[in-house]
Fold:
Amino acid sequence: MAVVKDTAVAAPAVRAGRLSRLLDDETRLGRLMLAPAILYIALLVGLPFFLALYFSLTDITVGSRTLHFVGLKKFHEVIHTPTFKLALKNTFIFAFVSQLLVLILAKILALALVKDFRGKWFVRLLILLPWVAPISLGSIGWLWILDSIYSVVNWVLVHWRFVREPLRLLGILDPRMPPMWLGQPELAMASIITVHVWRLLPLATVILLAGLTSIPKDIHDAAAVDGAGFWRHLFEITIPLVAPIMIVAVLFGFIFAFTDMIVIYVLTRGGPYNSTQVLASLAFFTGIDGGDLAEGAAISLFLFPLLVAAAFIFLRIARRAEVT
Amino acid sequence: MRRGSVRALLGGGAHFGLLAAFVAFTAFPFYWMLVTMFKETSDLLNPNNNPFLFNQPPTLEHLRVLFGETLFGQWLLNTAFVGVLVVAITLLLAVPAGYSLARLTGRLGEQLGIAIFLTYLVPPTILFIPLSRVVATLGLQDSLWSLVLVYPSFTVPFCTWLLMGFFKAIPRDLEEAAMIDGYSRFGAFAKVVIPISVAGVLTVVIFSFTLVMQEFVYALTFITAARRFTVSVGVPTFLVRGDVYFWGSLMGACFIASVPIAVLYNFFLDRFISGFTVGAVK
Amino acid sequence: MAIVEARNVKKYFGEVKAVDGVDLATREGEFLVLLGPSGCGKTTLLRMIAGLEKPTAGEIVIGGQVVNDLPPRARRIAMVFQSYALYPHMTVFRNIAFPLKAQGVPKAMRKDKVLWSASMFGITHLLQRKPRELSGGERQRVALARALVREPDVFLLDEPLSNLDAKLRNAARDELQQFQRRIGTTTIYVTHDQIEAMGLGDRIAVMNAGKVRQLGPPQEVYDEPADTFVAAFLGSPPMNLVEGDAVIVGFRPEQFLPAELHTAAPLVTFTFRLTRVENLGADRLLYGVLEAPFSGQRAIAKLPSTVTLSLQPGEKYPFAVPQQHLKFFDRTSGLRTAPRPL
Structure:
């Protein structure tokens, strides 16, 4: 050991003192490192959330200096306005129809994407675009596509004979009066739903795809050896195995559908005649544009029970995922 | 044998057709933006022109207008300003928190981790009204700083959750070796864990930035002056004036602000998904 | 150099008593092996010595100082992990230099020390590589070099050979021992492999269920097991344990031979009904059943292949053990008791 033993490695200077002890103490260090994030979230998510609850029980407006506690009066008022009833109905139609479509389309698309093929990454990129691009900008693209006069969809309907003639014969299309996609109530809702499906399809697809690729190949092989055909395989092997992940996808889809107002704000502003007004957009127009903070808060809180339900399901899944 | 190959061919064709249809649906609006931004206005606004063709030669006029005569450039700068600051705040808060949850807080940490993730599910549509009041009280209304303050409220929960997953995947031995080699618990984190997690940190940077770019509701609520808008709000509110639409410039703005970031994001998507699926995918 | 002591050390994880009252002290410069089956608490004990776990009760003493409240870095120890725990983002050079950097050793001196340590293990040509570019044996050497470079008072090794393949393991064992003899630093080595333990240790501490069952030089632990656990854990095949009226009698398979082969006296003779013969090349293992007074109990005999005696399954033979090689254990406690006539 006579090799290098010299002065350099004298006892390591462990700085005594509170700081140095803190940097070694797991429990206190852990709390200290976590505290800023928790504090931030408490102040900017927790506090506003309770403020929303509180506002909804008062008569606060944008300019008001004083506010009065009015109890459940705002909720009571809100429930009885026809606009609110319509928005509530629209919210459910919007959320359920778009989620159903997303789920079916995403399932098909994910099955098509499981296979390996050349240029897969590029196809994936193209399919993901609607999700990763800012939705307010994507919606403007649709605003142009669905324009009342210059709509490319209408141009195709009117100018492509093989599209026009069958539709005309079915009585769906009058070429002299092409549809106003965002100007007629039913069409406006259909357009909103389409854009929303367009936007959420990529997310649901990649989540399902992650689920599909996580099924071990052995299981597919075993099913094939056991003589399962395509449909039996799909319904008895594949779908049950990706079910938990499908639930996650649907959950996020619902949360986005219930709380999103961007598509509606850009495309229709809730019109025509509130036919595309949903709770989220109504809360914005009432609370911010209309200046009635209390009523806006009350409207937005109707979303809350739905979110609690979503969170509950989410927790159950998280717990189950932990067990396996 | 022959029947089999015919079926395979048909199957291949169907597969291709199916994917083509989906790609047409998802990518068409972006393609349409790209085409529109290079067309003359008179070409765009003639209902008898075939919209799929360039009936007049392509032009760069819309892009000139966009960058020369609108605030688009300013909005891009604003977005970058908010984005950089929000990313910095997010890293500062989420990296230590993620590590703490992964390693230092035990079972309590698991519960807290899920609780933090759940706050991500509380949507802006519930919070924007009270937050507008908070922002006003702080005197930050109509200032980009209001966005810098509020945006981490949605980036921090998700990034904390993502980073927790990254840190959990690092072998404990490495940190313990660093502690034996002469570092404190915190030193092991700073000198060994963070350098190993570069990929994870980079992912968080990209996601925070894209989330900032996409945000709409808060920016619409807190900001009123055109000069201070971010791209996602400025374009739909200020380039659309009444019934006068500058379609060429508008589409150019949409394309430029969405596609490059989308391509970048695509590289990090797999990690993002594993965060979303809460370990339901192994 | 330092002496490491554990004084009545306990570690409970909730209900689980991982280490349940261990008293143990190394000697100056000794190579001490902690041996036991998995889950016996040996790794937990080592981690408490390193400072990676806090004892529930008791004291850890290194070089005469109670170190319970000192963090790992202040204990002047170095540790080699089972996984080697090489930092994947650093080159071999930076891996080895890492502990020096932590101590604030000047750059020039750092380089000298890294070169010295690397040359001790013959890895100077690997210094610019990343860990993922190394073979298992090379990684192990890097881990050892990183432990050596700061010249610690104590080496702690946690199954450092278990990730090597069998052939490499023999060579590594040899090198490790030579290296330890040369630097003479107190070393505590955890393993579940009795061959490693016998071959490397100056002394072996056999652990089971959180307690040290026996501490002693390898031969002593082998020849004079303190209880039935140690007797059954060491040796391949392990000691035969047969139950008598009041005691358990133990004898090593290699002492249990056909009576006519024994030269020394006095002998104790058993009637052995052979059931199966296993030829292992160097040895023959004879499986069988004893007759009265141990009727029905199984035993194994190990004959060197130099003994060509013909032995047929199904036949009975007189087998014997020299009296001095019979070990006696209490039936209830399993502890060694005084020899007694059978």
In short: The CA atoms of residues 113 and 120 of chain A lie 8 Å apart.
